[in-house]
Amino acid sequence: MKFSILVPAYNEEQSIASCLNSLISVAYDGKEVIVIDDASTDHTVQAIEKLLDKGVILVRREKNGGRAAALNSGLQRATGDVIITTDADTVVPSDWLQRFSSCFEQQGVVAVGGAYQAYNKDKSLANATSILDQILNGVFRKSLVPNKLSGVNSAILRKALLDLGGFNENSWWSEDSELGWKLKRTGKVVYDPNNIVSTQYPDTWSDIWKRKFYWGYAMGLKFREQMPFNIKLWLRPMIFLVLFISLLTFLATIPFGMNLSLIPGFIFSLLLGSLTVVYIPLGAIVMVRNRDRISLKTLSLLAVLPIVREFAYVYGMFLGFCNGRVVSIRPSWKEK
């Protein structure tokens, strides 16, 4: 089985060399590494050209079109049986392709999603966000997430991908999610929590908010086009709706006595706890499992980070559904 690894890149001069060197070092004979430069304005191309003698294939686009457009340019050049996508700021393990190969030996598998963690663990906020993702994606094995594929670590049968028309260039910030839903109708999409890549995480509150907001906005646009009947897609907005209603009900019933306000107060506390303090012990477990030093700062961030991220996502989803316009939001390059 031959793998074609697609790496879309836009202004990634600082990280592209580390990414490509890790891909070159992967122990697997049947592979090709294709980097698609999406009209970068920095020295990304020059950094890639230094590695062309090691088998890296460079595809240059004259006009910037976003992540999905770049991936489609790479897909046209690919010759492998399986298409793998990752980001230009990502480092992969040496057994990366072997793990993907083992998953495709299962009957009926058309796509495989892998896990990811922070490369920049020295940043407290990035590390906390990474641990939160490991809880949701590893401990719960993405059971709370409606899609098992992520653009930073996914493998798809080339034929299945071509049958679906490739990557949807109009589905910015959610092309991997949309692709995962479509592929589930054609075969089995599996998730390997032990196939982990390391990638750059946002390390400021504004970047974390922006990323989750954009994902939510993109999902809201999808909801506007077609209302999906998938309980996992409705889980997050419904939790916040119940949280908001229970809080209002609790405040409105306080003047009438504790007996009346007890139930809405309990529901609000339960939901708030599920989005905050419950992640502290789970985060400590993940740290111990990863053999990382227990950081009180990181654990304290885990009490706030989940509700901030989820609120940004749901708020973006609401605006996307109501507005139905992209406005000034540009296509994504970081599908995490």
Q: Please, could you describe this protein's structure?
A:
The chain has 336 residues and is α/β, with parallel strands linked by helices. 49% of the residues lie in helices and 16% in strands. It is built from 13 helices and eight strands. The chain has an eight-stranded mixed beta sheet with strand order 3-2-1-4-7-6-8-5, with helices on both faces. Helix 5 crosses helix 11 (279-289), helix 8 runs parallel beside helix 13 and helix 9 packs antiparallel against helix 10 (258-274). The longest helix is centred in the last third of the chain and has 23 residues, at 231-253. The protein starts with a strand and ends in a 13-residue tail after the last helix. The mean pLDDT is 87.
Short description:
The protein is α/β, with parallel strands linked by helices.
Strand runs, count: 8
Percent in helix? 40-55%
Terminal residue distance: 27 Å
Q: How would you characterize the largest beta sheet?
A: 8 strands, mixed
| Principal-axes shape call | globular
Average of the residue pLDDT scores: 87
SSE order, one letter for each helix or strand: EHEHEHEEHEHEHHEHHHHHH
Give the class from helix and strand content and strand pairing. alpha/beta
Beta percentage is: 15-25%
Q: What is the number of helices? A: 13
- Strand arrangement in the largest pleated sheet: 3-2-1-4-7-6-8-5
Radius of gyration: 21 Å
Unreliable stretches (pLDDT < 50, length at least 5) are none
